[in-house]
Amino acid sequence: MSTDRAITVLLGSLEAARARLTGIADGIESADAHRHLLRLVSAALELFVERADPLRPLPTVWMSPTRKFLGDSPDTIYTTIPVSAACRYRLTIDPGAARYVGVVAYGRETDGGAVRIVASANDHDLPRDPEGRFVVEIGAASGDGLVIDPSTFWVMVRQYFRQPYPDQPGSVRVERMDGVAPDTTPDPVALAAGIERAAAWVDAQVRADLALDAIIEDPTGRLTTDPTVVDHAALVSQFFPTPDVSYQGCRVELAPDQQLRVDVRPPACRYWSVSVMTPWLESLEGRVVAASINGERATPNPDGSYTVVIADGDPGVANWIPLRGYRRIQVAYRVLLGEAQPEPASYVVEPTIAN
After folding, report:
1. N or C: which end of the chain has fewer CB within 10 A?
2. pTM reported for the whole predicted model
3. CA–CA gap between residue 9 and residue 111 (Å, rounded)
4. Domain ranges in the chain?
5. Distance between CA 58 and CA 173 in Å, rounded?
6. Which of 136, 141, 67 has the alpha carbon at shortest distance from 104?
7. CATH says 54-180 is which class?
8. Domain 244-351 CATH class label
């Protein structure tokens, strides 16, 4: 395929993805949906075109205050590196103020197929250099710190923070251990293939957003399914799991006079949080007021449980997440390195109690 044809495919894929963004009530929801699509395009061009070559690997920071998707945690910085089992790499991670650092290698058997975990490690296992940075050697040999196989295409670094941007964020650096690829002109075939993969990824992520929204329970316990979304399991497999985190969640549409009360009793763990997302699985804007409540910022109830209230107006409770004007939301409850399986969270829609 030529690069000209690949650009045509990308534009067609964007139009197909835009057409999937249905059920939009007004101009604000339309803007929210279209911003989400543009954020996916922004990430896709880095992940599959500009920073996609495992011979010349460059880290990509997936999410930021202005680029969110895939149910991101606002307390986490996600960084991916393209890798190949034919190469060896050294990954150097400065954790900054991170409360947790985890590294996961992902593979798939076919382009666009289901994602699986090939290997993983966290800061319990990762060696440090004299400056306190984590150093991970990645390759297919049994002596490598993170052993990958021919299906592996990305390595992801997760860093969890109390608040990632006020805190010292740290950094991720990668280098080839087996030689350096030279600078050169763009390869038309490789560039066209990258553009085509970017187009397919954007469309797959939009379909995965819709599929996950269709199968997450609402607070009444009902499972809603959309007959126009096929093969939920395959679509949700576009997401990138980690063995260190347990997830729960719900979705809800709140009337102006309603709020959502979330009650959780986390087990002993490294980190837990309740976060609020848009219908497109983007954490809410959090540059002024946090879009999540986590274990280091939360105030417990007398019995050791926690109550988080999600509402437009201040409900007069310690653990409040403002809605910012959203009515349709997704809620995620995460527990990181829990010493026991988390108890099910409780989600209750109730009348607003404005303070």
Report:
1. C
2. 0.89
3. 17
4. 1-53+181-243, 54-180, 244-351
5. 8
6. 136
7. mainly beta
8. mainly beta
